[in-house]
Amino acid sequence: MFELPSYLNSKREQINSYLEKCFQAAPESGRLIDAMRYSLMAGGKRLRPVLCLAGAEAVGGLAENALPAACALEMIHTYSLIHDDLPAMDNDVLRRGKPTCHVQFDEVTAILAGDALLTMAFQVLSRAESIDSDNHHAVTWLKVIQCISRAAGCWGMVEGQMRDIAAENNTLSRPELERLHALKTGALIEAAVYSGALLGNGTSEQIDQLETYAGCIGLAFQVKDDVLNVEGDPVHLGKGVGTDALRQKSTYPSLMGLEVSKAFARQLIEKALVALESFDNRSDPLRAIANYIIDRKR
Ligand code: GRG
What we know:
The chain is mostly helical and 298 residues long.
């Protein structure tokens, strides 16, 4: 039977050692690199890179071929957390169970560490080593770069963040909230599964199904995040709770209540599992991750 904890451990090891390698290649050492490594290696769940590797495996490809994309996604995600925690945005002091980057270092260093992680992601994505002699892989990598850059920027996460900030002290309608989250959190999660499937040489039918899967788990992830912000344990979460209510943010629990939010997240996961029905047991990790997203405590 498939065991998610050992799968997650082995994939996290692979991801962490690749991330370490990226830093060994860095020409400089010092405060900027220290701040980048501090946040990147602070013990996140590695959900996006694991999804990328699992996406490659689900379509019959090798996880290893998707490692640069997986690690680039984690760099982009970490940059977004560093910037999100800044005084100008959420002004949070705790992240991944540790002082946030600007608290540990200072604001200027945190801004630059975020900028440098975002840039490093594209350096890793465009590595010449990933390209074969007939350039077939170059086309695939260009598609991956296109999809990840769309998801990270004004077609995705950054626009979602802008809407999130604009929505403070305002009540959003459910479609507005759904769109905000699809951009802020969903886009990068979708890009993770999609780029993994591309690098695993998935067929267009497989990729279509995986896009449905990813859309559902991306939203479920956010609904669960909102639920954890109401009833989670700060020790497990490694960050504060109750902050959404304090900031008067529109969230799923504030819009539809806690129990309805949990039922909604469960429905989304069921829909995600239906999208995987035509896949064989190589997609078991994706199935297990879908359930983990709503059962998680952090
Ligand atoms: C600053 C451009 C910019 C974007 C920030 C993603 C984001 C946009 C902000 C994070 C704020 C937040 C709490 C969003 C809710 C969902 C989310 C992304 C949670 C953090 O992701 P996890 O749970 O974190 O995967 P770890 O630490 O495990 O990687």
